[in-house]
Amino acid sequence: MMSRDSTASLPAGLGRRDFLAAAGVGLSGGLAGCTGVFAAEGNNVNIAGSSTVFPVTEAIASSFSEENPTVNLSLSKTGTGGGFGNFFCAGRTDINNASRTIADAEVEQCGNNDVTPIEFPIATDALTVVVNPNADWIDCLTVEQLREIWRADGATHWSDINDEWPDEPFELYGAATTSGTFDYFNEAIIGEEANHRSDYHATERDRTIVQGVQGSEYAMGYFGFSFYSENPDSIKAISVDDGDGCVKPSIETAMNGEYTPLSRPLFIYVAKESLEKSAVRDFVRFYMKRAATDLVSEVGYVPLTEDKRDENLEKLEAAIEEVTA
Amino acid sequence: MAADTGETPADGFGRISRTKDVAFRLLALAATLVGIVSLAALLLNVAVDAVGWLDWQFLTNPPHPNPYEAGFLPALVGSIAIMLMIALVTFPLGVGAAVYLEEYADDGYLTRFIQLNIANLAGVPSVVYGLLGLGLFVGLFNIGYGTVLAAAFTIALLILPIVIISAQEAIRAVPDSQRQASYGMGATKWQTIRNVVLPRAMPGIMTGTILALGRAIGETAPLIMIAAPTTVFGLPNSFFSKVSAMPLQIYNWASYPQTEFQYGVVAAGVVTLLVVLLTINSIAIIIRNRYQQRT
Amino acid sequence: MSQPDFSHDGIRTARGTAFRYLFMLCALLSILTTVAIILTLLLDAIDFFAQIPLVDFLTGTRWSPTNEPIAFGVLPLISGTLVITIGSAMVALPIGLLTAIYLSEYASDRQRAYLKPALEVLAGVPTVVYGYFALVYVTPAIDTILPVDLSTFNALSASIMVGIMIIPMVSSISEDAMSAVPDSLRQASYGLGATKFTVSTSVVVPAALSGIFSSFILALSRAIGETMIVAIAAGQTPRMIDLTDPAGMFLDSIQPMTSAMVQIGTGDIVGQGPAYKSLFAVGLTLFVITFVMNLISELVASRYREVYR
């Protein structure tokens, strides 16, 4: 029975082998075809960049996705610099979230790869310094005091800032060096003369900062306002005195410009070349319209004014006309 | 095995040694149970936390920064897409390697080297496979960072040694007498393998492969290394779509600031992942039990 | 396993040969994978070592790839890995060994049929889930139960979780080794009037020692390579540890090698500079350590197999 079975299956076996070979050729051909079709055109929108801008883009992408379920939209949290350097200017993403303006070196890198960045302001953030709610000795810090705490070779203990404060070392949580938040804090607080200290918990994950500050009475951290507004009871925001008295961070004080020097504009950068893809065009149009709505204040930022929004839309349509013409 | 030996040690020994014996037995039993009980307690915790969060809306929505609107669909679909690709890649390769090692290879230096190498590959940390994927698939072959293909190929290499080892065991379990009978009837080696060995070994091979896929679906570190995106909206529409996966989405959600994410949405994600994993493993066990009587 | 070829049919032989080589190719793929891993790691690591001297990397006590002053000393990361390894060893080795003794010497067949799959589940839970458990359940629980000042991110909870995860690795391989100990040895001791405790600890364990040793090394190698648990729960503070200060070792945040790799891999680093390439240097270090450990474990294990089989 065995031999009958095997002799009978001999031609069938050959047939199967042919089939397998054909399938193999078909598959690799198909793959090659896919590479061509999807890599060039594609119903994909790829975004990387700042973790501060991330929640805004996530909220907008989520509602965009509900209306356009066939668009594959990816969003990575890499820090502003990581997003420009590794993804956007390398031509790997269409859009970069940024919590600062693009640097000259990055513009140059983009240029070398034929990527033309277009800047769109999308919201305003109030960078927030937070401490543990049990740290009842502190409510307000001057910019000088903040600098003393966060600069290299500065204070190490709370008592170094104020004799009445506990003689305990700081436990500091801050943004990683590639994040726009770090750059902004560095620029606004530390300044040119000093360096940001390096012996702190540096992270691109803001949750880490919230958890760290919740966990220790002597901890301090800084991050975008949205992370504070999500946790107003478990961490305490510090008012900042820029010479005109203490101002508490809030959407109002950021919008009317009282909260200085820590309020800052947030951006997205769109590669002009990517606007050739209809999915990217649709998404950016959608983004610009939504950036002036409550959707932004719900994630804890200050929305655009309608004038700014119209300015953005004009800029966008002009760019689209250029690439599709 | 000492199951039924020496249940009555000779009399004349003191009470002390008997007490010590009983104490040791209890200690060993406690040690056996401590891990299982801890895990059960943790699973119970996460299941309770997931109540109210794990619902139809969670399973069918895209992610959202608001925990009450956040959904898991792209990650769920991404995981399944990656897993199917992995199965397509590892099954033929794993079975082929196992057939060679068990049926063709002699017991020489090369075979022993391959065998040792496979055992070693099974112990290479998954994060190192991630670097391999980054260098090989993302870098050299340029199939894009974080795509379905890059993710599937990377994890496929990771579980291939496990698939090979379990397929080898299944093939080894086929009685030699059956091969001899086939040869005796004039069948060639290939005919014997195809008509006798593989059909008999198939349930075991399937079980091993599916269990390995269970391991694959929980892998996170390799995906991070090939720069899989933090979050994906919409479903993968080609092999070159950026892909998210359940464990990756869980890792990223765990960093969201709101406690509703930490104790609600993430818990729901964890339970979903574990349910999918349990389903996969149950399928493997059902296959094994169904065919066990025949072997 | 080579069988005499009864077939004299030319086509059949050709076909058989074709399949033979096709299958061999599949088997050789595993060697190719190893070569690819080594090449991937080595090529970028060489770039890295062209800029950072190997000696500085291996003996430096500061790891700060992006913050001025930049330093690429791997020792703080190895310290972090060591803490996790020691911590998980303290959990998994005694528990795993006792579990193996129970399964091999005490448990009935029925008990074994339930306990062994249940233990395997411990190794089957995705590590990201363990990491999440460590962060949101274990750390707060320890913080309330024990009178210690535990950081949110700490080596203790991460070690416990890694330890639980590797228990089955210790117990199953150790149990195999103990089961392989010939019954005649046990019978002889019982004959001399020994209790089960004495037989287990003085006869079975010593006789199975090489298998147990092999299981320990394999489990620890797994702990060293474990990534997600430490990335989520152990923190991101690369620091040198003081072995004489267990509280300082375990209660605070550390950063093992794998966790540093995840931090670099999540895109915190820009461009192709040494900070990015350090990913591969650390990866190579990790690969070499685990590879050597796996190899030792394999060699020791093959020795015990030879002794009793």
UniProtKB/TrEMBL annotation, chain B:
UniProtKB keywords: Cell membrane, Membrane, Transmembrane, Transmembrane helix, Transport
Protein's cellular compartments: Cell membrane
Residue intervals passing through the bilayer: 26-52, 72-101, 113-137, 143-165, 261-287
Pfam families xrefs: BPD_transp_1
Occurrences of domain ABC transmembrane type-1 (ranges): 76-284
GO cellular component: plasma membrane
BP term (GO), one: phosphate ion transmembrane transport
Keyword Membrane applies: yes
UniProt similarity note: Belongs to the binding-protein-dependent transport system permease family. CysTW subfamily.
Organism: Natrinema thermotolerans
Main location: membrane
Membrane-related topology note: Multi-pass membrane protein
Protein known as: Phosphate transport system permease protein PstA
MF term (GO), any: phosphate transmembrane transporter activity
Keyword Transport attributed: yes
UniProtKB/TrEMBL annotation, chain C:
Domain ABC transmembrane type-1 stretches: 78-297
Membrane topology category: Multi-pass membrane protein
GO cellular component: plasma membrane
Main subcellular location: membrane
Keyword Transport annotated: yes
Coiled coil: none
TM segment ranges: 21-50, 70-103, 115-135, 155-173, 194-220, 279-301
Family: Belongs to the binding-protein-dependent transport system permease family. CysTW subfamily.
Name of the protein in question: Phosphate transport system permease protein
Lineage: Archaea, Methanobacteriati, Methanobacteriota, Stenosarchaea group, Halobacteria
